[in-house]
Amino acid sequence: QVQLVESGGGLVQAGGSLRLSCAASGRTLSTYAMAWFRQAPGKEREFVATISWSGSSTFYQTSVEGRFTISRDNAINTVYLQMNSLKPEDTAVYYCAARAGLIRTLHYEYDYWGQGTQVTVSS
Length: 123
What we know:
Layout: E1 3-7, E2 10-13, E3 18-25, E4 32-39, E5 46-51, E6 58-60, E7 68-73, E8 78-83, E9 92-100, E10 112-113, E11 117-122
Parallel strand pairs: 2-11
Antiparallel strand pairs: 1-3, 3-8, 4-5, 4-9, 5-6, 7-8, 9-10, 9-11
């Protein structure tokens, strides 16, 4: 069993930056692919970014590529999402997720989820 806890969300002006963290407990993350998803009010949960267990492979949603960076530190069981040049349309609850095996982009392919952290970008 893997427990995930996100932190780092908050209110930021458009153009600003935030760094989200996802701390894992219960099992080491070193064999899990990790991902960030987000869900805005009235919308479905959508994929944001994913990283392989080793950190050697990453993949991003088109709308965040070049602005967001996913990374991980397996030594401390933590995954990060650095978000730069934030836009109002990035406003959502951001969720961290884990799955054993290869990276995937569909939410139902992930087994473990955090409780989410709110990101609000004002215009």
